[in-house]
Amino acid sequence: MNNWMLIALLTISTYLSRVIGVEIMAGREMNATLRLYFNYVPIAIIAALIANQMLVPTDGGIALSLPVLIGCLATAITLKVIHTFLPSLIIGIAAGLLARYFL
Amino acid sequence: MNNKKQTIKKGVTEALPLAIAIAAYGLSYGVLTTQTSLSLASALAMSLFVFSGSVQMVAVAMLAAGATATSVLIATALLNLRNLLYGAALAEGLSPAPRKWRGLLSFGVSDEAFVLGSARFQKHGPDPLYFGIVATTFYLAWITSSYIGAVIGSQVDPLKWGLDLAFPVTFTAILIPSLRGKPVIATALVAVTITVILQYVTPGNEFTIILAGGLSPLIGLYVSRRTRDNE
């Protein structure tokens, strides 16, 4: 499947999820458990993606990427301290780059 | 007429701080697309037509990791489930708009628009114009910043500038503010555990993200129920 086809399908599936909510789900009581499940899905996918990117393929296995780990930790700590998105990203990337060149 | 002007002014004023935050995400998204097979035109088209930060970020991250289009579609469908909740909650506030306009307004349903829209509807009742202004402000911020990010990202050496680190670092910055409460933390920890185990057992398995994304919330639900029972 080429990228344009993927974009078309993402457009359709995302728009459908929005319009179905507004036009069809309106006024219906949704199960509280299902509602909670939906809320946790993005957390799970983002956490899985971070873990996936920390593990780099090696010969026949995988290894932990220290630059990625250090970059993520630096971002997390900076965000907790200064609560600002872009500077936290820049500090995280800088920490990861330093780890790459000096470790 | 005066009332309409006031609504437009209110919508733009209240949306602007969040639009700046959205632009920061958009900038990151644009830079990240340069790490994938997406061209500048397709990266921008994704912002124009999909207009969803989480869906676009996850899609480009998975494409960069070599995932197939099918697994990208399944993972993003899981992410889109929460739009059903947002749409259902916003429906009453959008109900005065004619059906064709509601169809257009639905395109603006997102995390941030939901927060502002539902707060406005609770205070002032249904107000499709306000929602439309907020969604348009976010849309303009998103496409402009995506374009700028993609142009900047394509003109620098990714390894030299650490752009390959931008994926995990950006996702960390998105995740950290959400990690509140035991159920959410348990969900994230289990997702990481499932991912690590699956990557060790079957490296490069394209269903890793889908399995972690679909199964971990069940643990979150379990912890949530236990926490509630213990209170």
TrEMBL record, chain B:
The chain crosses the membrane at residues 12-32, 44-75, 129-152, 158-176, 183-201, 207-224. One of its GO terms (biological process) is L-valine transmembrane transport. The keyword Iron-sulfur does not apply. Signal peptide: none annotated. Its main location: membrane. Pfam families: AzlC. It is found in: Cell membrane. InterPro entries: Brnchd-chn_aa_trnsp_permease (IPR011606). Keywords: Cell membrane, Membrane, Transmembrane, Transmembrane helix, Transport. GO terms for cellular component: plasma membrane. It is a multi-pass membrane protein. PANTHER family: INNER MEMBRANE PROTEIN YGAZ (PTHR34979:SF1). Belongs to the AzlC family. This is Branched-chain amino acid ABC transporter permease. It comes from Oceanobacillus profundus. The lineage of its organism: Bacteria, Bacillati, Bacillota, Bacilli, Bacillales.
